[in-house]
């Protein structure tokens, strides 16, 4: 179609691509408090409140493999993915809209399973299923997710608010979902030609759960509100810790130092990584799909944050000129790198 | 995956399927003014206002064919599709978020063309591009569209508000986009094996424009506001007139009579339909993708509505028990039927 110059998407990488495409997107409407560049758009609603809206997509073959992903779990995870973006703004999700593209090979019963998972997660999080539609798809299953939340304007945490010397906090532990996926992929490969496959999952239930049915950390946002802590910046950990740290650094025009031995990793994650000759730290840094939260608070809040009992401090914010680094136990610095455009 | 009963999606049809899946979706949050069942969800925002949010998807191979759909036009149309849902609530679109799934075979330049169309339409409609992302797709191009608008709560037109004896009004003309698509498909078939294809489009520019670059009817919503007309119900005409009339009847628990000879059809539509041995009325009733608006107003407002100079009155609302009918010039009644689940 084009005789002009042809640039491959891989040359720019995912972040470079989005920058390049949305460079000219200016916000002109008064109601647009925040447009491109965060987990969600922020829309004025009344004098003091805001509505935050996020959009996500789960695509068969890219984000999930139906040979081992139960549809009920997939529905649950779709809601987690959407809710997590809203929570990462320090807002509470209230509505969700799900748009399905389904191939005709799917049965109505299968779709009902998917919706059962959606409704279960909605109930758990206090979210109303407020719309969406179901369309034919020529290819695989596509799940479009639009999530709507609400917050006081003053309480919203943006990616761009991290300050010099802020502490970098992480909820839960990282890399477990990625190792769960590795396990599922291994069993799929091993059992590809077996007639009555019996995958070996014993002892790895936690990792499977973290990949197949991750919980959105609404508890954290509620705990922060109770302690009257408004993080200076926040992001959800969906692409791996390295990528999220770099996003915060870019938006906040700062650097960061992350201490390798402080990254929370579950013992199950380490055990399977060792069994599979993989590095659990790499799973935490680049694996993704944890749906935990990363946020920053002023140094003075260290005690208050630790009192929550829900987070680990893994590092701190530095000047932009110093860059973003991972500090190993022997004291050497490794430059953090974002993942490329996944294919 | 299932040993249980298997029901094919086609057995239920698209509307039956959505009903079946979202039956248990109750709205529990105070802020959910309207959930499932309209062009958009309606969310409380301040005491008197509401934010309306709609979600749409355009899928390659289902909604567009890149062999003849210029990417700039596709971007423009994506915004039209989203904006049209918001306008159909009698609200004005203010923000849009676009989520792309792109295959690696697409070049950055192609994506820039797509975004150029998106930004052009946004500018025309006063919409801010407020987010979204770009992801890898294993299959074709997928475009997820989330559109956000705003209205006074009292001014919102729902599908469920049509009253007995209301007039049914249509903007613009119907069936043109469908005939544009038929023309593009014909030329694609005819020229499939030709080396330097030269499609014959002369004289059909209007139809192509209606399919490839439809305009969202923001002018209508502004004109209605100026005349202080709040339609009792409204819907955008994306699936063909028959389907939209049935949606209004279902939501408003009423019947309808549409007069065949009053359906506005452009002479270009009729001319090409005749050339292709097709029925222009079928194109208007079932073709879809017109992105015009259908709304109802009380009978007493007839003069006021006609003064707009922008609409045709094509019928009126009847009791639910009478059903929804198309009345032919010779006076016979044909029961209106919805389209099935397109595959």
Q: Can you tell me the residue ranges of chain A where pLDDT is under 50 for at least 5 consecutive residues? A: none
Number of strand elements of chain A: 14
* Largest beta-sheet characterization of chain A: 7 strands, mixed
**Helical content of chain A (DSSP H or I, runs of 4+):** 25-40%
Rg calculated over all Cα atoms of chain A: 20 Å
Intertermini distance of chain A: 23 Å
**Molecular shape of chain A:** globular
Oligomer: homodimer
Global mean pLDDT of chain A = 91
* SS field, number of helical segments of chain A: 10
Quote the beta fraction of chain A: 15-25%
Largest interface: A-B, 89 and 89 residues
Question: Structural class of the helix and strand makeup of chain A?
Answer: alpha+beta
Question: How would you explain this protein's 3D organization?
Answer:
Chain A is an alpha+beta fold and 343 residues long. Chain A is built from 10 helices and 14 strands. Chain A has helices at 9-22, 71-87, 108-125, 176-190, 205-212, 218-226, 241-252, 267-275, 280-287, 302-307, and strands at residues 32-34, 41-45, 49-59, 92-102, 128-129, 134-136, 142-152, 167-171, 233-237, 254-259, 292-297, 311-319, 324-327, 333-335. In chain A, the strands form 2 sheets. In chain A, strands 1, 2, 3, 4, 5, 6 and 7 form a 7-stranded mixed β-sheet that branches. In chain A, strands 9-11-8-12-10-13-14 form a 7-stranded mixed β-sheet, sandwiched between helices. In chain A, a hairpin with a 6-residue loop joins strand 1 and strand 2 (41-45). In chain A, 55% of the residues are buried. The interface between A and B is large, with 89 and 89 residues.
């Amino acid at each position: 179609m084009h005789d002009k110059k042809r640039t491959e998407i891989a040359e720019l990488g995912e972040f470079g691509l989005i920058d390049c495409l949305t460079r000219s997107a200016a916000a002109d409407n008064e109601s647009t408090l925040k447009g491109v560049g965060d987990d969600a758009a922020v829309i004025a609603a009344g004098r003091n409140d805001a509505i935050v809206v996020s959009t996500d997509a789960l695509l068969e073959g890219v984000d999930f493999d139906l040979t081992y992903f139960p549809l009920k779990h997939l529905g649950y995870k779709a809601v987690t993915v959407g809710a997590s973006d809203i929570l990462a703004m320090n807002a509470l999700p209230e509505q969700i809209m799900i748009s399905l593209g389904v191939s005709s090979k799917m049965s109505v019963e299968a779709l009902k399973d998917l919706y059962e998972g959606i409704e279960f997660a909605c109930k758990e999080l206090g979210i109303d299923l407020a719309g969406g539609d179901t369309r034919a798809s020529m290819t695989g299953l596509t799940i479009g997710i639009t999530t709507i939340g609400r917050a006081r304007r003053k309480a919203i945490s943006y990616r761009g608010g991290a300050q010099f010397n802020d502490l970098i906090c992480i909820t839960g532990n990282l890399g477990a979902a990625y190792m769960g996926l590795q396990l599922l992929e291994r069993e799929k490969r091993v059992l590809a030609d077996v007639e009555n496959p019996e995958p070996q999952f014993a002892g790895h239930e936690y990792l499977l759960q973290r990949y197949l049915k991750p919980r959105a950390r609404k508890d954290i946002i509620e705990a922060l509100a109770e302690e009257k802590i408004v993080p200076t910046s926040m992001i959800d950990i969906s692409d791996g810790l390295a990528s999220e740290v770099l996003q915060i650094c870019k938006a906040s025009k700062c650097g960061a130092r992350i201490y390798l031995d402080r990254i929370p990793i579950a013992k199950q994650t380490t055990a399977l990584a060792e069994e599979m000759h993989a590095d659990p730290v790499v799973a935490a840094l680049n694996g993704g799909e944890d749906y935990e939260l990363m946020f920053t608070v002023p140094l003075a809040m260290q005690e208050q944050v630790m009192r929550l009992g829900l987070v680990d401090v893994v590092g701190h914010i530095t000047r932009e000129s110093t860059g973003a680094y991972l500090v190993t136990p022997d004291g050497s610095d490794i430059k953090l790198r974002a993942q490329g455009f996944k294919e």
